Amino acid sequence: MRKFLIAANWKMNMYRQEALELIRGVIEQTKLFPSVDIMVAPPFTVLETVNGEIQNTQIRLGAQDVFFEESGAYTGEISPGMILDAGCTYVIIGHSERRQYFHETDEIINKKVTAALKNHLIPILCVGETWEERKQGRTFLVLNQQILFGLQGIDNEKLSSIIVAYEPVWAIGTGKSATKEQIQEVHAYLRGVIKEFTSSNEMAFNIRILYGGSMNPKNAQEILSQKDVDGGLIGGASLNIDSFSSLVQIAENVQKEKKQE
Ligand SMILES: O=C[C@H](O)COP(=O)(O)O
Fold it and tell me: Which residues form the active site (predicted)?
């Protein structure tokens, strides 16, 4: 049975005081729901602030991005070792905002995933099609390429710790999530691609695939209930104590139901 992960991506939001209030509220409200994994990925500037608060809780720290070199003359970049040193367990890689605004290619993303794994970080590899690509019937082709290039050259042992996040670009921050049918269809497809890539049924079964894109307390129940959905990567709804905590609560309930099936 795969354990749900509810992952918060705060993106470029939260000054120190706001971050403190948000994380303290989330800790308080989620401690009654211990059976789901929770990750919070704040901006780099408040990693330490948040890390100081989450000690001895079930919440783990994540970074929103990483560079692939270990150290050196790369002004403005942060290495996997530095992220680990700051207390991170997870790192989000290949988010569509990085692909779109910072021109990250599948090759760069592959280097980042490889470097993160080498440093014992858990990469959350984001994939997803644009609306244009979906309209042209290219959804699976695009996803197939993003997964195959993103994971190229990584052996099965290392791959077993990665997490995939399906985030249709057209659903991010729009208030309009993909339908439960679209989500289940893609998640099952991605699991199939991973099965082929690793030649392992077991690996494909165990890898967690999160959904991201306008997930909120109203639609979370039906999204998380889908067979191949193992949690969420949450943007907007993670910036509010009540909405993020209720997503964790919903996940806890759905996970119990799934266990009984
Ligand atoms: O990383 C999170 C995703 O981009 C989803 O963002 P959103 O929940 O604001 O649509």
Answer: 95 (electrophile), 167 (proton acceptor)
- The set of residues, in sequence order, having a beta carbon less than 8 Å from that of 191 and lying 6+ positions away, is 204, 205, 207, 209, 228
Which atom belonging to ligand 1 lies closest to the Cα atom of 97? Answer: 4
Task: Decide: 235 in ligand 1 pocket, CB within 6 A.
Answer: yes
pLDDT < 50 positions in the chain: none
Residue pLDDT, tens place only, 42-62: 999 999 999 999 999 999 999
- Pair type for strands 231-234 and 5-9: parallel
Tell me if residue 188 falls in helix, strand or coil: helix
Which ligand 1 atom minimizes the distance to the CA of 174?
10
Largest Cα–Cα separation, the chain = 53
| Residue set of the binding site for substrate | 9-11, 173, 214, 235-236
Locate 143 and state its tokens: 């996803």
- At residue 189, the pLDDT reads 98
Residue having the nearest C-alpha atom to atom 7 of ligand 1: 235
ipTM of the complex: 0.99
Name the nearest CA neighbour of 134 among 104, 170, 184: 170
Domains and CATH numbers, the chain: 5-260 (3.20.20.70)
CB-ligand 1 contact for 172 (6 Å cutoff): yes
pLDDT of residue 259: 84
Catalytic-labelled residue, pool 97, 104, 129, 167: 167
Residue 261: its pLDDT value, please?
77
Tens digits of residue pLDDT in 8-23: 999 999 999 999 999 9
